[in-house]
């Protein structure tokens, strides 16, 4: 059985991916410092899969800890989710973001190189594209990240690209996620933001549960069909399956050393689409008001995800209805997230 190291594996996307990997027959070793997650998620993974993953509380910036980990466990590949992800926070605390996301990845890669583990799937983001010239966005679009967070992702992408050029034994997948939402269909795992959510779907969920009084829709004067911002929302289960597909691709004899792929649905939905779909499928009112645009927001963007389909044989299949239903199912069963 192949053992996969999942850094950040107790976080939102990492936990769902761990479930997917265990179901596919991999053994998972999770490394997380719980800076943005809760240990209770481990029991949920065990509940769903019938297997408890091994979890090490530790930091990807800790070189000694990583050396010990690789000396103790025979790891086949790494999926590297560990990172900080709040755009606004990254503007206020850029060094924290570069230290954690860039230096953390470099420390991890050095440990991997020492241990001769040279296969890695990296969580990148559509944020590396910034304001694109047009949508759908192909992988060839230029880097235009507009925040320290986005630039930390672009820097890591460059670092990993250089590594594949220096040593053809490396197998690297850079997966650029669009807007991950949704939850495990059981309702036992989902997104659990600390404090007031910044992102749309968790905010909508908390309005639906009565925890927040009203959604503020940031801008309704964009050049979109209904004037609100459009994004490519992707179900976290589809995203998790994308990681499995990437892992399998990298294990192939004919795999290219470097794979760069958008993970999205190639479709966009407006903020109002999300609100009305959520209300309809869950039969719940979502009070909202229009307010000014959020500084730094792009009007509309969505993926050209055709490369992932051709190369990985992966395609997102879940609808916006599924995303809204599963998000609410999680929120309803866990009003305080994992802190219940
Ligand atoms: P998350 O915050 O839920 O998960 C990240 C996990 O990494 C958390 O469990 C956190 O405790 C852990 N972590 C952070 N720094 C660490 C460190 N130094 N050492 C060990 N563990 C550490 O976020 P997520 O939504 O699951 O995102 C996972 C990855 O995907 C991140 O790298 C993020 O930047 C990227 N991404 C997320 C989105 C999104 O909208 N959710 C979009 C694009 C890319
Ligand atoms: N949005 C909103 N109100 C909120 C949060 C988000 O209107 O409380 C909008 C935001 O302007 C964008 C979309 O919802 O058009 C998705 O935002 P989110 O923060 O979820 O993701 P982003 O695309 O910014 O990473």
Order of helices and strands: EHEHEHEHHEHEEHEEEHEEHEHH
Summed up, the helix count is: 11
* Uncertain spans: none
Name the shape in a single word.
globular
Distance between the termini: 34 Å
Q: Report strand %.
A: 15-25%
Work out the radius of gyration.
19 Å
What's this, in brief?
The protein is of the alpha/beta class. 40% of the residues lie in helices and 17% in strands. Strand 1, helix 1 (12-23) and strand 2 form a beta-alpha-beta unit.
What's the helix and strand layout?
Layout: E1 3-7, H1 12-23, E2 27-32, H2 41-49, E3 54-57, H3 63-72, E4 77-80, H4 87-92, H5 94-115, E5 119-125, H6 148-166, E6 171-177, E7 179-181, H7 200-208, E8 215-218, E9 230-231, E10 233-235, H8 236-250, E11 258-263, E12 269-270, H9 271-282, E13 288-291, H10 306-312, H11 320-333
Parallel strand pairs: 1-2, 1-4, 2-3, 4-5, 5-6, 6-11, 7-10, 8-13
Antiparallel strand pairs: 9-12
Helix pairs in contact: 1-2, 1-8, 3-5, 5-6, 7-11, 9-11
The structure holds nicotinamide-adenine-dinucleotide and uridine-5'-diphosphate.
């Amino acid at each position: 059985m192949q053992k996969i190291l999942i850094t950040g594996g107790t976080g939102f996307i990492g936990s769902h991916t761990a479930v997917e990997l265990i179901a596919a027959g991999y053994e998972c070793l999770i490394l997380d410092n719980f800076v943005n997650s809760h240990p209770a998620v481990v029991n949920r993974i065990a509940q769903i899969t019938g297997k408890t993953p091994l979890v090490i509380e530790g930091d990807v910036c800790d070189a000694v800890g990583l050396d010990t980990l690789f000396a103790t466990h025979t790891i086949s590949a790494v999926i590297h989710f560990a990172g900080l992800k709040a755009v606004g926070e990254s503007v206020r605390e850029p060094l924290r973001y570069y230290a954690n996301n860039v230096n953390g990845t470099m420390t991890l890669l050095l440990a991997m190189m020492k241990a001769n583990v040279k296969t890695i799937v990296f969580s990148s983001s559509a944020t590396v594209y910034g304001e694109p010239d047009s949508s759908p966005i192909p992988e060839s679009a230029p880097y235009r990240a507009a925040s320290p967070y986005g630039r930390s992702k672009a820097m890591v992408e460059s670092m990993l690209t250089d590594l594949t050029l220096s040593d053809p034994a490396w197998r690297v997948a850079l997966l650029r996620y669009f807007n991950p939402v949704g939850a495990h269909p059981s309702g036992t795992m989902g997104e659990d933001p600390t404090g007031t959510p910044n992102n749309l779907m968790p905010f909508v969920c908390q309005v639906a549960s009565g925890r927040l009084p009203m959604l503020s829709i940031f801008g309704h004067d964009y050049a979109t069909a209904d004037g609100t911002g459009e994004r490519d929302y992707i179900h976290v289960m589809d995203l998790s399956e994308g990681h499995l597909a990437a892992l399998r691709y990298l294990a192939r004899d004919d795999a290219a050393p470097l794979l760069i792929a958008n993970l999205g649905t190639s479709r966009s939905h407006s903020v109002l689409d999300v609100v009305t779909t959520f209300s309809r499928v869950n039969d719940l009112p979502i009070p909202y008001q229009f307010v000014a645009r959020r500084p730094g927001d792009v009007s509309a963007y969505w993926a050209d995800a055709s490369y992932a389909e051709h190369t990985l044989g992966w395609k997102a299949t879940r609808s916006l209805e599924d995303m809204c239903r599963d998000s609410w199912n999680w929120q309803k069963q866990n009003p305080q997230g994992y802190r219940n």
